[in-house]
Design brief:
By secondary structure, the protein is mainly alpha-helical. The chain is built from 8 helices and 2 strands, in the order H-E-E-H-H-H-H-H-H-H. The model is unreliable at 1-36 (pLDDT under 50).
Length: 248
């Protein structure tokens, strides 16, 4: 039976991560903060139901998440030092491949332009993880991603409860399952510093909008596809929680 514990190495690395996470762990998916004065404003009437500012922003958030978490997942598959870390990477890649496919399918139907690059802040997330090695790589990646997944979870629920657009509901359903799965596999690594993560989730620093907004794609540029590697067979819809420590 696995018992979650904070190793000395983890404590050391997390101490070093405190400044990094304070600087980076702002709502990771662009648009969590209101980008207009009225997110409920209807910007289009589609055959799938009205589309609001919040609905449109949600699609962009999900797309932007994949643009940094998919490559980070590939990195974890290759450089993770434990089977659990490599498994987390597989789930990140598979989950965001599926979400990205849905985003690319619904965006033209709803008149939404998708970004091809993550926001500058999200790109810095990847650079921060890429700049570490060994166990520090594992711990840095896990805790940054656990913060950002915890931050987006309530946003998914809010969109799912409020949207009147059937396509947005479908995306929210898939995003809910995927994010829960990712949180679960990240926690299975036994590297999550819950005190630090909870603090960063609830007290994110304020950053300039330019840092948290993905750049618009060049006119006429093809939509980047986040492919799933051949042979990757991962179920991201039914997460299995890590076993609880025995009591007594």
């Amino acid at each position: 039976m696995r018992v979650t514990q904070r190793t000395t190495g983890t404590v050391f690395v997390i101490g070093g991560l405190a400044v990094t996470l304070t600087a980076l762990a702002y709502p990771a998916l662009v648009g969590i903060e209101k980008t207009t004065t009225d997110q409920a404003r209807i910007i289009a009437n589609t055959r799938y139901g009205p589309l609001t500012e919040a609905d449109r922003d949600f699609v962009i958030k999900v797309r932007a998440a994949g643009l940094w978490e998919h490559p980070l997942g590939l990195m974890a598959m290759e450089r993770g030092t434990t089977p659990e870390m490599k498994e987390a990477g597989e789930h990140l890649v598979a989950g965001h491949s599926g979400l990205d496919e849905m985003c690319r399918n619904i965006a033209p139907e709803l008149g939404i332009t998708l970004p091809n690059q993550a926001s500058p802040q999200q790109q810095q997330f990847v650079a921060t993880v890429d700049g570490s090695t060994g166990k520090q790589f594992d711990t840095t990646a896990v805790n940054i991603m656990r913060v950002t997944h915890g931050q987006i979870f309530p946003t998914i629920a809010k969109i799912r409860a409020s949207t009147q657009n059937s396509m947005i509901r479908q995306l929210a359903d898939l995003a809910n399952d995927t994010v829960l799965d990712h949180i679960t596999v990240l926690e299975k690594t036994d590297l999550v510093n819950y005190d630090q993560v909870n603090f960063q989730q609830t007290t994110p620093p304020k950053l300039p909008k330019d840092d948290t907004t993905p750049p618009a794609p060049q006119p006429g540029s093809p939509v980047l596809v986040l492919n799933e590697p051949p042979g990757l067979d991962v179920n991201t819809s039914s997460p299995t929680p890590a076993p609880s420590p025995s009591v007594g």
